[in-house]
Design brief:
Distance between the termini of chain B: 28 Å
Radius of gyration of chain B: 23 Å
Mean pLDDT of chain B: 90
Number of strands of chain B: 0
Strand content of chain B: under 5%
Structural class of chain A: alpha/beta
Strand content of chain A: 15-25%
CATH architecture of chain B: Orthogonal Bundle
Number of strands of chain A: 11
Order of helices and strands of chain A: EEEHEEHEHHHEHEHEEHE
Shape of chain B: globular
Oligomer: heterodimer
CATH class of chain B: Mainly Alpha
Distance between the termini of chain A: 23 Å
CATH topology of chain B: ABC transporter involved in vitamin B12 uptake, BtuC
Strand order of the largest sheet of chain A: 6-7-8-3-9-10-11
């Protein structure tokens, strides 16, 4: 794999497999991520990339394989476990509770409590104002249920939730799918900023144009298997497209088990 | 961050009617107003129907309203729990049967078992019995919750099964017998002349209530100022304070104007060697204990639903179960807790219902599930999940009970009563859905 990057990887997924009713959604997939690095996981719809990442975030239980966080084997069985390891996920569906406000969503599952053990809504809202001020300075609708917000505002709520708790590993599943050009630009800036802070980021996308310029490396999946890995500077967009569509590994890439076998 | 956010939609205010502006300033929920209006309509309607058709308007009398408050308690207590159940997109059809089973278990404990060990009328009997009843209810509810959350059986099916199982089990417990009378102290938990706190007690409760209402308004204002949130105009705050205090005092005056019946006064006079003639004695009922229980449950459940982590999780699960799970909430465990709480409230209602009848019968609580669900839904709890309030459910229970009582008072047949209650439920939900669509 990426021998250029040195040290202990932040996350290392080894030979991970998961099957749903006999269909191998992810088959012996391996990928790693270093601090301050952006790795794009690419593939068609149904290639297994979202499933792979949902195992890492604890939404699915794996059937086989190992996950290492900072070199130590991690036991991730549910989303709470993943958060313990500093793994935060922004889901494609955003996964926000529509009927409660932004602050409640940001702190969902990790509420700030007063000394009496009750919810400290004022403190949560104050913190929410801070973090949202960083992400989206125009955001003012803290009192309204999230269902009243626009797609971009909901996205910023989802992102704010992920970065609020000092995540070390951030997973973004189609982060810009619901966004307009200006908001997409904001997300790109945010990713650059988080990189500088030493956070490792997995970007999941089926559209190479969304992520190619943001990513340091790409990992391409097809039919649940890894086609190959490449540094973005070593390959062209077309070559990566070839990996996605045909499973054909170019010269600049390291072939994985799912690569098309040369005759 | 530094600028104080203006009231949202400040620019629109000019175009709005004074009524909308009033609602905005006081932040009163229009739904709440609608429900109170409906309630007043029902009360006045039944009163004048009785007045003109039967020649006797019996509804708006202290006696009827006092009884109405007692009759609402049992359903009202359970309706607060049903809100949480429905908010999480579940249903509990078994509440009436859990009530029946708990009541029967408590009756057996306090009538057949405890007197043998403690002696008849021992002061600990009622305490042990109530705790036992709450635990039985909670245990049954937790068991239902376990089946729903961990074995993934739909709540409808689990509690439909529970409806039959616990009704049958209650029959088996006492071989179908009616157990009566219950413990003398326990009986007071169901109301009645001795199950009310009297005039002085009611004034104390009322004044405490007023103090709490004013304190809440002040602390809310202080909180808003501290975090620079928009404040309500002072006149709106004053209006809210006077309405809530006025309402509380009116309620106290009402329950205090309902005197003990002559017969009870006679007994009382005889027992206490009072010289004054019976006809000159006016002893107020005051708040009935079951009503105080319901109010306490309402406050506790509102606190639980809005101020605690558990309540936040309940509403988040209702809004988006998947998001709640992904946010790291143990949704299954929360579900078990919700049903356990529902069961415990059934146990509490069983205390009220069996104490009120001074007996436990095999059919106690039959069809209560429907009234409880109707109360929650009329009170604005949405079957789509994520929306509902505790006070709404209690008001809903009051609406249901008012209809029921009113029709009995004006002499409608049981058959017509059922038809009216059923129709009102459907119409109320229809109006609610229209209102919600408009609000969006």
């Amino acid at each position: 794999m990426s021998s250029e990057t040195s040290g202990t990887p932040l996350v290392e997924i080894k030979d991970l497999s998961i099957a749903f009713g006999g269909i191998k959604a992810v088959d012996q997939a391996s990928v790693d991520l270093f601090p301050g690095e952006v790795v794009a996981i690419l593939g068609h719809n149904g290639a297994g990339k979202s499933t792979l990442i949902k195992v890492l975030s604890g939404a699915y239980k794996r059937d086989g394989g190992q996950i290492f966080v900072n070199g130590e084997e991690a036991d991730i069985n549910n989303p709470r476990d993943a958060k313990q390891y500093g793994i935060e996920t922004i889901y494609q569906t955003l996964a926000v509770a529509d009927n409660v406000d932004a602050a409640a969503n940001l702190y969902l599952g990790r509420e700030i409590l007063t000394s009496f053990g009750t919810l400290d809504d004022a403190a949560m809202e104050a913190e929410a104002r801070k973090v949202m001020g960083r992400l989206n300075p125009n955001f003012q609708r803290f009192k309204e249920p999230v269902s009243k917000l626009s797609g971009g505002q909901r996205q910023s709520v989802a992102i704010a939730r992920a970065i609020l708790f000092n995540a070390r590993i951030l997973i973004m599943d189609e982060p810009t799918a619901a966004l307009g050009p200006q908001e997409t630009e904001q997300v790109s800036e945010l990713i650059q900023q988080l990189k500088k802070e030493g956070i490792g980021i997995f970007l999941i996308s089926h559209d190479i144009h969304d992520v190619f310029d943001l990513a340091d490396r790409v990992a391409v999946m097809k039919n649940g298997q890894m086609v190959g890995y490449a540094r973005t500077e070593d390959v062209s967009k077309d070559e990566v497209l070839g990996m996605i569509i045909m499973g054909k590994c170019p010269a600049g890439a390291v072939a994985g088990p799912g690569a098309m076998q040369e005759a | 961050m530094t600028d104080i956010p203006t009231l949202h939609g400040a620019a629109k205010v000019d175009k709005e009617s004074p009524f909308i502006r009033f609602l905005r300033a006081t932040e009163i929920d229009a739904r709440l107003l609608g429900m109170i209006a409906a309630l007043i309509l029902i009360w006045v309607g039944f009163h004048f129907y009785g007045h003109f058709v039967n020649g006797f308007g019996a509804f708006l009398t202290p006696r009827n309203l006092w009884n109405l408050s007692v009759q609402t308690s049992s359903i009202g207590v359970m309706a607060t729990g049903m809100v949480l159940v429905i908010v999480t997109r579940h249903i509990d059809l078994s509440v009436g049967s859990i009530l029946g089973f708990s009541a029967m278990s408590m009756a057996i404990l306090q009538v057949w078992i405890l007197p043998e060990f403690l002696g008849l009328g021992h002061p600990m009997i009622w305490i042990i019995t109530v705790v036992f009843g709450l635990l039985i209810g909670a245990a049954i509810g937790a068991f239902h919750g376990y089946l729903i959350a961990y074995l993934s059986i739909p709540a409808f099916i689990v509690t439909l099964g529970g409806l039959l199982v616990w009704r049958g089990a209650a029959f088996l417990l006492a071989r179908g017998e009616t157990i009566s009378p219950v413990d003398a102290t326990f009986k007071h938990l169901g109301g009645g002349p001795f199950g009310a706190i009297g005039s002085t007690g009611s004034w104390i409760v009322g004044l405490l209530g007023c103090t709490a209402a004013v304190a809440l308004i002040f602390s809310g204002r202080a909180q808003r100022r501290r975090f620079q949130f928009p404040l309500r105009p002072v006149w709106a705050e004053a209006f809210l304070a006077s309405v809530s205090c006025g309402g509380i005092i009116a309620f106290v005056l009402l329950v205090n104007s309902y005197p003990w019946p002559k017969g009870i006064v006679k007994q009382y006079v005889a027992a206490n060697n009072i010289e004054t003639p019976v006809s000159e004695i006016f002893i107020s009922h005051g708040f009935a204990i079951p009503v105080l229980i319901m109010i306490a449950v309402g406050i506790a459940m509102t606190f639980l639903a809005t101020r605690t982590r558990f309540g936040r999780y309940v509403f988040a699960i209702g809004g988006n179960p998947e998001a709640a799970e992904l946010a790291g909430i143990n949704t299954r465990w929360v579900t078990v807790k919700i049903f356990a709480l529902m069961g415990m409230l059934c146990g509490l209602s069983a205390v009220i219902a069996s104490a009120r009848l001074n007996s436990a019968t095999n059919n106690l609580g039959t069809l209560d599930e429907l009234y409880v669900i109707a109360a929650a839904v009329i009170g604005g709890t949405s079957f789509a999940g994520g929306i509902g309030t505790i006070y709404g459910a209690i008001l809903g229970a009051l609406v249901m009970q008012s209809l029921q009582t009113g029709m009995v008072l004006i002499g409608f047949d049981a058959a017509i009563q059922q038809i009216v209650v059923g129709t009102v439920l459907v119409v109320a939900v229809w109006i609610d859905s229209v209102y919600r669509r408009r609000a969006k």
